[in-house]
């Protein structure tokens, strides 16, 4: 009988995140699996929860629930020391082009642990094995929670996790069950 093919990927997982606490709980669980060399690519529309996820992830990683984690909107990158080595939080929304990454400690960051908001802006410079988290605000909740000011009132978010490392077990997330997508 032929031996089974090595597992090259895991199916994507989809989570509903009804509250900010749910997003933070997922971030803490995933941070528990983090290793040097990881790239966590956080995609999704504005306000969908990328920085909220990154903040909870970095607080868990540093075991410091009061850690200041500003959104690096203008500096584009914020470094952290963590027990698993240096970590770098990027927000590439304002990146002029991937050639500018060299000035943002990108090569050092690729050897360390990276959390990257707006990863599409890094184009081919993004590590191909990055774990992809795609956040969104579900349309029905967005429509019903839209205020006159244009702000969204709903806390409901969703995330799909793709490209999970095949050799890494996906952690249990307290209070959340992720649906495996085919
Ligand atoms: N379920 C939820 N998950 C994450 N954030 C939520 C949730 N519910 C409400 N929020 C709120 O939504 C906002 C998300 O903002 P956040 O800065 O994390 O978004 P972002 O995706 O990083 O946006 P940007 O693209 O502008 O950087 C915060 O104000 C947060 O309190
Ligand atoms: Mg952000």
Main attributes?
metal ion binding; tRNA processing; Rossmann fold; 8 strands; alpha/beta; ATP binding; 182 residues; transferase; transferase activity; binds magnesium ion; globular
Written description of the protein model:
The structure is a single chain. This protein is α/β, with parallel strands linked by helices. The protein has one domain (13-165): Rossmann fold (3-Layer(aba) Sandwich), CATH 3.40.50. It is built from four helices and eight strands, in the order βαβαββαββαββ. It has an eight-stranded mixed β-sheet. α3 (106-111) links the parallel β4 (85-91) and β5 (113-117). α1 crosses α2 (50-62). The two termini are 26 Å apart. The mean pLDDT is 91. Magnesium ion is lined by residues 50-51, 71, 91, 117. It is found in: Cytoplasm. InterPro entries: P-loop_NTPase, T6A_TsaE. One of its GO terms (molecular function) is transferase activity.
């Amino acid at each position: 009988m032929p031996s089974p093919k090595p597992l090259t990927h895991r199916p994507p997982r989809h989570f509903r995140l009804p509250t900010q606490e749910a997003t933070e709980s997922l971030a803490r669980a995933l941070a528990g699996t983090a290793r040097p060399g990881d790239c966590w690519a956080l995609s999704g529309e504005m306000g969908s929860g990328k920085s909220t996820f990154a903040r909870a992830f970095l607080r868990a990683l540093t075991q410091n629930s009061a850690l200041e984690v500003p959104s690096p909107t203008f500096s584009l990158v914020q470094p952290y020391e963590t027990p698993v080595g240096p970590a770098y939080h990027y927000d590439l929304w304002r990146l002029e082009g991937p050639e500018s990454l060299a000035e943002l400690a990108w090569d050092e960051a690729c050897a360390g642990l990276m959390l990257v908001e707006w990863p599409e802006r890094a184009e081919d410079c993004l590590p191909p094995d990055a774990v992809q988290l795609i956040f969104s605000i579900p349309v029905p909740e967005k429509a019903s929670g839209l205020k006159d000011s244009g702000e969204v009132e709903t806390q409901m978010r969703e995330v799909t996790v793709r490209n999970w490392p095949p050799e890494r077990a996906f952690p249990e997330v307290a209070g959340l069950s992720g649906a495996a997508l085919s």
